[in-house]
Design brief:
The chain is built from 15 helices and 14 strands. It is α/β, with parallel strands linked by helices and 427 residues long. It folds into 3 domains: 171 residues, 3-Layer(aba) Sandwich (Rossmann fold), CATH 3.40.50.300; 89 residues, Rossmann fold, CATH 3.40.50.11420; 144 residues, Rossmann fold. The strands form 3 sheets. Strands 2-3-1-4-5-6 form a 6-stranded mixed β-sheet, sandwiched between helices. A 4-stranded parallel β-sheet has the order 8-7-9-10, with helices on both faces. Helix 10 packs parallel to helix 15 and helix 11 packs parallel to helix 13. It binds iron/sulfur cluster. The site of iron/sulfur cluster has 8 residues, from loops.
């Protein structure tokens, strides 16, 4: 079993009406009774997840969702939950019982298109005659372009469905899989066997007994790139620098200690933060740099959304609840209304509170696609967005320095600052 981390797994959403065969498909694909199957419509009441290896795709998460045609007050809530799953999926399968294609499927196909999620149709047929008929229809039979792939199979066996019966579904998923590659985290910033220094403070807010995900990823990416990697706490920074015959070719540090590290490191040594690296890995670094510039235009009383991608127990000096609001207030020169939105699901922006910007966490548990979707939503709402670490570097006066290894992002930040100054001059 691969140890691929969750954000790197292909997220496959199974959608359709109640009793269309979504749970049977989920069980058939994983060869287990992962999802409860029964002839009673609406057996799946919450999305069910199955983390697995699916040949030939590799590591995946299957998301089996409640029926899209559920009725009543509770049913509407289940449908809403199904639709929220759209934010998470990389590809979607619309499962039909026989050839039943109607309003729920049409509406779903429109939503998937709007969200830019590649999707295909799986026709779950009751008998051979239905199979023949479905094969003859093709996607055009459902008023969809021929480019939408279609798989026809019989799933009534659920987990005991013969593997061969699913070959068409696997082929369909291979066709749907997005081809985009994640950029490297840092190895492209170093020459072969380049000297890398990672500064990882291990204070009270660090998890006990382990490093956080961006630090682990940085070490792994450095090793993949054949770099020479030295890891030290901020307290040992001076000793680490002194231990090297030549200065590091890149230093990466935690945003929370960027001010002291930037002061201690000679200006000609390239320096950045884990947050900047994650911003590039997960999304669009120039766009997030422009978002950081917008924070310079905040005024007291403005509303800012502070968004976290997962929920956690708040700590005494919690970053999203205390530190970020405090530093934004310092930037604005007075108190702001900071609204914390935490959780795996993306929330619609509340137009009533007229937010001026979004400051998002590093999104280490999100895939690049999920983060990009969040960025796009913000962009459509004309909301500048940046991340915690970039906001911290801005408030500490070192954002230009930590963006220096990324000329495009630095240029975007400077341009946005000039725009802001020009607008302020006209006001
Ligand atoms: S996703 Fe965001 S809130 Fe969750 S652990 Fe990662 S950085 Fe923290």
């Amino acid at each position: 079993m691969s140890d691929a981390r969750r954000p790197q797994r292909l997220h496959i959403g199974l959608f359709g009406r109640r009793n269309a065969g979504k749970s049977s498909l989920c069980n058939a694909l994983c060869g287990q009774d992962a999802a409860l199957v029964s002839p009673v419509p609406g057996t799946t009441t919450d999305p069910v997840e199955k983390v697995m290896e699916l040949a030939p795709l590799g590591p995946v998460v299957l998301l089996d969702t409640p029926g899209l045609d559920d009725a009543g007050e509770l049913g509407a809530q289940r449908v809403a939950r199904s639709l929220r799953t759209l934010e998470e999926v990389d590809v979607a399968l619309i499962v039909l019982e026989n050839q039943l294609w109607g309003t729920p499927e049409r509406d779903l196909a429109a939503l998937l298109k709007e969200a830019d999620v590649p999707f295909g149709i799986v026709c779950n047929c009751r008998d051979e005659a239905a199979e023949q008929a479905a094969r003859g229809l093709g996607p055009e039979g459902f008023a969809l372009p021929a480019s939408v792939p279609l798989a026809v199979c019989r799933l009534d066996g659920g987990a005991t469905t013969p593997a061969g019966a699913l070959d068409c579904v696997r082929e369909l998923l291979v066709r749907l899989r997005p081809q985009e590659e994640e950029p490297p985290l840092l190895r492209d910033l170093l020459p072969p066997q380049g000297r890398l220094l990672l500064v990882c403070p291990q204070d009270g807010s660090a998890p006990r007994g382990r490093l956080i995900m961006p630090q682990v990823q940085a070490i792994r990416d450095a090793l993949d790139g054949d770099a020479l990697c030295l890891v030290a706490t901020d307290k040992a920074l001076g000793a680490a620098l002194n231990s090297l015959r030549e200065p590091p070719q890149l230093i990466v540090c935690d945003s929370q200690v960027i001010a002291s590290v930037a002061a201690a490191v000679p200006p000609d040594v390239p320096l950045t933060t884990f947050s900047v690296l994650m911003a590039r890995l997960k999304g669009d670094l120039p766009l997030l740099a422009r978002g950081a510039a917008a924070l310079r235009g905040l005024c007291p009383g403005d509303t800012v959304l502070v968004q976290e991608a997962c929920s956690h127990h708040p700590q005494a000096d919690d970053i999203g609840r205390v530190k970020i609001p405090r530093l934004l207030a310092r930037l604005a020169g007075g108190e702001l209304h900071c609204r914390l939105l935490a959780g795996r699901h993306w929330q619609d922006y509340d137009a009533v509170s007229r937010p001026r910007a979004v400051v998002h966490c590093g999104g280490c548990t999100l895939s690049r696609r999920q983060m990009t979707r969040r960025l796009l939503t913000a962009q459509r709402a004309h909301l500048p967005m940046t991340n915690y670490g970039m906001a911290i570097s801005l408030a500490q006066g070192v954002l230009e320095r930590v963006l220096s290894p990324f000329p495009e992002a630095l240029a975007a930040y400077r341009e946005a600052c000039l725009d802001l100054n020009a607008r302020a001059g006209h006001a």
